[in-house]
Amino acid sequence: MSSDGSNHDTYFSAFLLKWFDENARRLPWHSRDPYHIWLAEVMLQQTQVETVIPYYERFLKAYPTLADCANAPLADVLKLWEGLGYYRRARHLHETAQTVLREHGGVFPTSVAALLRLKGIGRYTAGAIASIAYDVRAAVLDGNVMRVLARYDDLDADIRQAHVQRQLWARAEALLPSERVGAHNQALMQLGQLVCTPRTPNCAACPLRTQCKAHARGTQAVRPVKAKRAPTPHYDVVAGVIRRQDGRLLIAQRRNEGLLGGLWEFAGGKVEAGETHAQALQRELAEELGVRVAVGALCVRVKHAFTHFKITLHAYHCTYLGALPPYDAPQALQVQAWQWVDEEELARYSFGKADRAIISALLEEKSRFC
Q1: Alpha carbon distance 312, 314 (integer Å)
Q2: Shortest CA distance to 249 belongs to which of 240, 238, 258?
Q3: Which of 73, 104, 106, 197 is the most exposed place for a label (fewest CB within 10 A)?
Q4: How far is 140 from 294, CA to CA, in rounded Å?
Q5: Given this model, what pLDDT does residue 6 score?
């Protein structure tokens, strides 16, 4: 993984920085403010730049300072995050803002080691904050940077392997300049985003092409090497649009820990082997909320992909029949909270993407009969 002793690396950062000075994208988070940098880096995790920009701008308008974010209710932060996905990021962001305000006087620490002690900040994000905000000599390694380095060195090893990741981190650190470290890191990330793209890289526009081993050998199309992933599992899931006699709907709040923690949902769960959808839904609602329902017609079917699995969500209209003995009302048995709401009130709560599709189907049904 190391240089071969030639002038392979001599002008790496100089060429990169010259290109960046001439081609840097004007993005709203190009700032030396660590709060702005941190917010952008958290939002950009596994999310495209174009998707992030409006969320970033809305978030800063609502919470222009770290203290504003720290003092906001978590429910409000989650609502503002709604649609951006990976909601654990929002919970960690809120917690970290409170920690920085309480323990660091509202100012992010400057060292990578101190940043790594904050919730939701890993090695990449710590390096980005330290280098861009404070020009600390710290490397970054995200998917874009890994792709650039793998092509630059014509790396023929699987970049998902742990020992290769360690080599790539060491390589990124070795290539850091003595000055303008933050600009160097931003340039490297932008080069991967705009030029050294996953498919059909624009080598003619690359400032590193004269040094790039993959370009010289014609292997850029097969770099980086990634082993094929196992097939993504799929699950059938059911949810109940539970309505009581006065027309109000029963919604539940997921527990903070776990998938989509803290968000609201139409309760339900995974269909087990041998169960019909109605049986699965009745079992799940009894386990989660301690309620009995009559399962009616299908409301909507939604396909949705999470990071490591896919689901088909089948949402059914349900009539509330009452609580299971010994209860006289729904219970938070396997959920954090529950609430009866009018359809108009649903917009006040934060839901995941699949549940928002259910709400859209309900509103569409309502408009057809009005």
Answers
A1: 6
A2: 240
A3: 73
A4: 54
A5: 45
Find out whether 28 and 53 touch, Cβ atoms under 8 Å. yes
Please give the pLDDT value at position 2.
43
How far is the C-alpha of 343 from the C-alpha of 345, rounded, in Å?
5
Question: Residue 259's CB: how many other CB atoms inside 10 A?
Answer: 13
The catalytic residue positions are 41
Q: Cα 17–19–22 angle (5° rounding)?
A: 110
Stretches where the chain sits below pLDDT 50 are 1-6
Tokens of 131: 């280098």
Among the listed residues 249, 325, 253, the one whose alpha carbon sits nearest the alpha carbon of residue 288: 253
Q: What pLDDT does residue 370 have?
A: 55
Q: How far apart are CA 212 and CA 225, in angstroms?
A: 16
* Domain segments of the chain as ranges: 12-222, 234-368
Q: What is the DSSP letter of 227?
A: P
For residue 356, give the H/E element and its range: helix 353-368
Give bridge partners of residue 292 from the DSSP assignment: 322
Residues 6+ apart with CB under 8 A from 184: 13, 16, 17, 20, 131, 176, 177
Assigned superfamily of 12-222: Hypothetical protein; domain 2 (1.10.340.30)
Q: How confident is the model at residue 320, as a pLDDT?
A: 98
The topology (CATH level 3) of 234-368 is Nucleoside Triphosphate Pyrophosphohydrolase (3.90.79)
Please choose, from the candidates 243, 142, 230, the residue with its C-alpha nearest in 3D space to the C-alpha of residue 185.
142
Distance, in Å, from the CA atom of 347 to the CA atom of 359, rounded to the nearest integer, reads 9
Give the model's pLDDT for residue 10: 78
**pTM over 0.85, yes/no:** yes
